[in-house]
Amino acid sequence: MAGTGSRGRAERRSAGELESEVLAALWATDRPLTPAEIQAEIGGGLAYNTVHTILKRLYDKGLVLRDADGRRGAYRPAKNAAEVTAEAMHQALDRGPDPIAALQQFVTGLSSEEERALRELLAEGDA
Amino acid sequence: MRFDVYSPLALSLLLAAAGPLTGRYVAPAVAARVLAAAAVVTAGATTWTLVLLGAALLGDVPPLVRGAGEGGAAADPVPAVIGLAACLTLVVIGVRLRRAVRAERRTRRALRQLCAGQPVDTELVVAASAVPRACAIPGRPGRILVTSAMLGALGPAERRVLLAHERAHLAHRHDVLVTAAALAAAADPLLCPVRSTVAYLVERWADERAAAAVGDRRTTAHALARAALTAQRGGAVCALHFADHAVTRRIAALQAAPQPSLGSAALAVLALSTLPPLLAADATRDLFRLLTGAPL
Question: From the candidates B148, B176, B195, B209, which should be mutated to test the interface with A, based on the most A CB atoms within 10 A?
Fold first, then answer.
């Protein structure tokens, strides 16, 4: 089932999916990114114009801001909505049963032994 | 009726034992669906069986129900104690189901609130939080919630794995399977192991979809490892009830070759799950005859 190999990969990403990836890339770093940097980061042969279009759409939704004082043309993520969400998340955590733990979570807890094994795995990969 | 009526209980034990095995050897997409369906069918049959045992109590009240036809000659196959125990168990099941449904509703409401301040037509919901978390929020449309701490910890390819993984949860409606298995386990506690197997399998399924989307199982394994280590460092509020070795097992599965679909094993589990309702139906007929005074 997972045998699509390295070929049919990232080419067929929908506009919504690309929006998520651009937004994720902007949130992953502390400094503003230019469209060219985002293009390099996301890869998959994405056209510069496409990156521009996506940034425009995210800007119209109020999810990203043009960096005013920094380099021209650079973007950074807008914090408002994300802070509201974070606050709601922390409130939910304080209130009691964790709603996210009840759902499918990407990852869950580790024992110290497992932790060591995973570190080794990543160290191998980086070498 | 004597045997039929008890066998759905025995079969739920069998399913509880077969579940983890199916999960180990069959592709997760097949195994998760088959096990969730089998759990629901078995829980339904088990509950119905208890209804039958409880209803057999009526057979102990000859003048009201049985009529004069046979004069109470037919031996009552269900002792009154068992009938009473069945009624009590049904009450417990009712309470458990109610609690499970409420917990489910509460979770969904809390998750909807998390997206309140976000534009409607955006897939990714970022929370500006130092707690590393990521999860899929089912609904229309489904959303992916990730905290800034989690995004910052992953590399570009690993972020793509994370998004593809959560997207798979939403696209294949994994919440439905998990909820179905949870309700089945609430009605029939013997099925609790099946519930955890289904929860594990939907994660494996999403991992496989992510590996296919990114085109690389190794990157997918690394993304999982990195995310797990990050979550660990971030205080792992969630680690409490996940003492099993789920993440390491998922990573190991990604490092091995993908499991075959094994239709025959899946069919065997499905066949197993059709037995409880068949036997329950047979028992129903017997009870009906008993109550109406027809010969057994």
Answer: B148
Question: What residues form DSSP beta bridges with B8?
Answer: none
Nearest CA in chain B to A28: B152
CATH topology for A11-127? Arc Repressor Mutant, subunit A (1.10.10)
CA pair distance B8, B50, nearest whole angstrom: 10
Q: Which residues of B touch A79 (CB under 8 A)?
A: 128
Residues of A in contact with B174 (CB under 8 A): 104
Total count of residues recorded for chain B: 296
Side-chain half-sphere exposure of B294, counting CA atoms within 13 A? 6
- Classified as helix, coil or strand, B114 is helix
Per domain, the residue ranges of chain B are: 7-292
- Which residue in B62, B87, B75, B48 sits closest to B292, CA to CA? B62
What six digits make up the tokens of A31?
A: 């400094």
ipTM of the complex: 0.83
Does B151 sit within 8 Å of A88, measured CB to CB? no
Chain B: residue nearest A21 by CA? Answer: B160
Q: Distance between CA atoms of A71 and B147, rounded to whole angstroms?
A: 26
Give the start-to-end residue ranges of the domains of chain A. Answer: 11-127
B80-137 tens-digit pLDDT:
888 889 899 999 999 999 999 998 898 888 888 888 878 888 999 999 998 888 889 9
